[in-house]
Specification:
481 residues, alpha/beta, eight-stranded mixed beta sheet, two-stranded antiparallel ribbon, 40% helix, 14% strand
């Protein structure tokens, strides 16, 4: 049982909570535009935070798989759907469904299927992309990479019935769990509880044990709405080279995380004190509820430029045998809002899907996916795969970045060559390993000394400490030369 058997070969989500990376640009606190390089972030969590920062930011993203770029494009299109066709609650639910569920609702599957034509045009027609989603720049990608992304989107566009046969993710997930646990498979529930209690409970206090165990077993992490989750999430499909029958072949399947969980990005931290309330030694909020509220706040601010001020939904203990005083907290405004949401949900799914894509006509070449423009000055640029070693060789990039972010899987790039493209007195941010259950105590203990050794070679020094009691989701290093 190796680390890759659990964490996976492809990271579909980050292993740390979302943060506004512009706050680490301490040398540039003025109105000057910021340039940030994100390496191996795996998702858009930090980008969403930066879109709410009010700063002008140019984000360069380098991922390890083209499937991740396709996912970025999909999730950006979800949160920027026209408010006249998709409400805030629907955007949030759709985002979470696609983001962290192995099996999704039929309406979610239809949304992806009917959006594919527009996505293909975005990667093959730069003029179309500039008109529909001007904040995204894919001009740096190679033509063969765009062709590969087109093939990924075409696979996403297969009908639900065909995708169940071509990508039976429930079987793939169970096979991964069986392979990871081995002879301990029958005691899986106890293993999941042990991983939670020994590694995650104290470090991610808002993580819900039951939700975590359910996700470890089924891959479904966010059931924010009652419904049937039985359609394969085709956006989690990828391929790796494996030895099959004595020869190296491309194996399609689910090769992502099965131990850390998608809750880490948005569901284990909150700026609201009420989210940390505990009753009878149980968190009153589940991880999915926290993620839903955090994302709702981000999506609202991205689309309106204003902070979301409405209180979270009632917690799991509300109206369930509480005191009369607690039950009376349901105000007329909350009841009215709930009734309005119920009326919105009566719209037929088929009609909604038609409106959310390209006017219901996939054959009209001139049809555009209608997206709102974010209320922020941010540009996201996709870098070609495997170009990190080439960046320091480009003279125009030397000392040009205000911040560099490295995920735990990309630490090999923490070199003197990389810091050469970092501005003087700037910071380099590295994702912490505190939320990875398979790591042993010895591996965790060797992490910081190894980082300090790499930092010394790269002429950087650690800022702060590595105290798990603090919310140090990332380790910050300062360039000193």
């Amino acid at each position: 049982m190796s680390l890759l058997d659990g964490v996976g070969h492809v990271g579909w989500w980050g292993l740390s909570p979302s943060q506004d990376l512009t706050t680490y640009c301490t040398h540039n606190k003025g109105a000057a535009p910021l340039r940030v390089l994100c390496v191996g972030a795996n998702d858009l969590r930090h980008v969403l935070e930066m879109m709410c920062s009010g700063r002008e930011v140019e984000v360069f993203m380098m991922e390890t798989n083209l499937e991740l770029y396709c996912r970025h494009l999909l999730l950006l299109s979800v949160l920027l759907q026209r408010s006249t066709t998709m409400g805030l609650q629907e955007k949030t639910e759709l985002y979470l469904d696609l983001y962290g569920n192995s099996l999704v609702r039929n309406a979610t599957s239809k949304f992806v299927e009917n959006s594919v034509t527009s996505f293909i045009r975005m990667v093959t027609d730069e003029d179309y992309l500039k008109e529909v989603l001007p904040m995204l720049d894919m001009s740096l990608l190679k033509f063969k990479e765009r062709d590969f992304m087109e093939g990924i989107f075409k696979f996403w566009g297969t009908t639900d019935a065909k995708s169940k046969a071509a990508f039976p993710i429930d079987q793939y997930w169970d096979n991964r769990v069986r392979s990871y646990l081995g002879s301990r498979y029958d005691a899986g529930k106890n293993i999941f509880d042990m991983d939670f209690s020994m590694k995650l409970k104290e470090r991610a206090t808002l993580l819900d044990s039951k939700e975590y165990a359910t996700w470890r077993k089924t891959g479904v992490g966010f059931e924010v709405r009652d419904g049937v989750y039985d359609s394969p999430n085709r956006t989690l499909c990828s391929g790796i080279i494996k030895m099959i029958g004595g020869a190296k072949r491309l194996a399609r399947g689910y090769w992502g995380d099965i131990v850390c969980s998608p809750y880490l990005s948005h569901g284990i931290f909150s700026p609201l004190k009420s989210m940390y309330e505990v009753r009878n030694r149980i968190n009153v909020r589940t991880s999915s509820e926290i993620a839903e509220h955090n994302l709702m706040c981000l999506i609202y601010q991205i689309n309106t430029g204003k902070k979301y001020t409405k209180p979270p939904k009632p917690d799991r203990f509300s109206f369930a045998g509480n005191t009369k005083e607690e039950s009376d907290k349901a105000t007329l405004e909350e009841v009215t809002e709930e009734e309005e949401n119920e009326e919105d949900q009566t719209v037929e799914v088929a009609e909604k899907v038609e409106k959310l894509t390209v006017g219901g006509n996939r054959n009209k070449k001139s049809a555009l996916m209608e997206l709102d423009k974010p209320k922020s000055s941010i540009t996201v640029k996709f870098l070609p795969l495997g170009t990190m070693e080439q960046l320091p060789k480009k003279q125009n990039l030397l000392k040009s970045f205000d911040l560099i972010y490295l995920s735990t899987s990309q630490l090999s790039y923490f070199t003197p060559e990389l810091t050469a493209i970092l501005k003087d007195d700037s910071n380099l941010l590295i994702e912490n390993i505190k939320y990875i259950p398979p790591l042993t105590t010895a591996q965790e203990g060797a992490f910081l000394p190894k980082l300090k050794e790499m930092a010394t070679a790269a002429k950087c020094e650690l800022l702060g400490s590595n105290d798990d009691k603090n919310n140090n989701f990332h380790l910050s290093f300062h360039r000193v030369d």
